[in-house]
Amino acid sequence: MAAVGGRILASSRTDPADEDHGGDGENKSLNFKVSPDFKKEFKGFAVSQGITMTDLLKEGFALSKKKRQK
């Protein structure tokens, strides 16, 4: 798991263990690499907020999208 120059490296590797299994069958897996420290901090923050890592990612994306579209 690596980040280069602060950037997250994307991967086209598919890991069945990472699949998001929702009831609607429409969910797709996002596969990208982050540093172990980032993952630990991200997961810890999600847990401290009582939300899933997926929900934290979605919330962060929504906030970033809103900010950048101004």
UniProtKB/TrEMBL annotation:
Residues 15-27 have a biased composition (Basic and acidic residues). Residues 1-30 are annotated as: Disordered. This is ParG protein. GO terms for biological process: regulation of DNA-templated transcription. InterPro entries: Arc_rbn_hlx_hlx (IPR013321), Ribbon_hlx_hlx (IPR010985).
